[in-house]
Amino acid sequence: MSASRTALIVVDVQNDFLPGGALAVPAGDAVIEPVKRLLADPRWGVVVFTQDWHPADHVSFASNHEGKVPFEDITVSYGLQKLWPDHCVAGSDGAKFPAALEDTRANIVIRKGMNPAVDSYSAFVEADGKAVTGLAGYLKARGIDEVVVCGLALDFCVRFTAEDAVAAGFKTTIVEDAAAAIVPAENDNLFAKLAEIGIRRASTDDILRA
After folding, report:
1. What pTM was estimated for this model as a whole?
2. What tens digit of pLDDT does each residue of 24-82 get?
3. Strands 73-76 and 6-11
4. Strands, DSSP E only, in 33-189?
5. What does the pLDDT read at residue 1?
6. Reduced to 3 DSSP states, what percent helix, strand and coil does the chain have, rounded to the nearest 5?
7. Nearest-5° angle of CA 145, CA 148, CA 154?
8. How far apart are CA 191 and CA 63, in angstroms?
9. Which of 25, 159, 41, 46 is CA-nearest to residue 98?
10. Contact (CB, 8 A) for 3 and 144
11. Strand, coil or helix: what is 52?
């Protein structure tokens, strides 16, 4: 890892995804200490935080679809959309970063899911596959050619961020102990699929020793 050419992307470590939150990820709070260890490394060329930041009428909220419940799928203009409990509503406590996580190292915060009609898991491209966040251009303009991704949830926003990072031309690693999944039993299968497109699986210790 060429540290000055590597970005750390901390995905959606927000109160609503932690225990007690509106869309809690199992053991989501377990990522905080590894993430803090990664943030303490002074070598990163760029540090990126992402933040779900939804309007109350967002398409992904089951409450906005009569007769629907969370975790059902519906069809929207860009394909299947999974419905979620209302979460990370813009400006709410649930959308904030937890007090335990020091976020002042972030060079940029990418807010996702602000368009009420389109969901957004990835830090790079919204769920319609068309609207880009500008992150790829931002990183390339700063000489970044590798990204290390961590945060919540591994099987959704972390995964899609990593996949889109590869598509944008970045060498990509997911930090396994600094990411937690909604369905952790599928982690090995998920990492096997990600390895097929070149995404590396590493631990916090691996990254800090590199």
Report:
1. 0.96
2. 999 999 999 999 999 999 999 999 999 999 999 999 999 999 999 999 999 999 999 99
3. unpaired
4. 46-52, 73-76, 79-82, 108-112, 146-152, 171-180
5. 64
6. 30, 25, 45
7. 135
8. 32
9. 25
10. no
11. strand
Which regions of 83-170 does DSSP assign to beta strands (E)? 108-112, 146-152
Alpha-carbon span 27 to 44, nearest angstrom: 26
Spatial contact of 120 and 127, defined as CB atoms under 8 Å apart: yes
Measured distance CA(11)–CA(51) in Å, rounded: 7
- Cα(1)–Cα(147) distance, rounded to whole angstroms? 10
Just list the catalytic residues.
12, 112, 157
Question: What is the DSSP code (8-state) at residue 198?
Answer: T
What whole-number percentage of the chain has pLDDT above 70? 98
| Cα–Cα distance, 116 to 86 (Å, whole number) | 13
Q: What are phi and psi of 81, to 5 degrees?
A: -130, 120
Whole-angstrom CA distances from 155 to 13, 162, 194 are 14, 11, 11
Answer whether 167's CB lies under 8 Å from 143's CB: no
Which helix (H) or strand (E) element contains residue 138?
helix 135-141
Q: What are phi and psi of 127, to 5 degrees?
A: -65, -15
Residue listed under structure tokens 């519906």: 74
Sign of the dihedral through C-alpha 33, 37, 39, 45: negative
Contact partners, residue 168, CB within 8 Å, separation at least 6: 124, 136
| Matching residue, tokens 């000489």 | 143
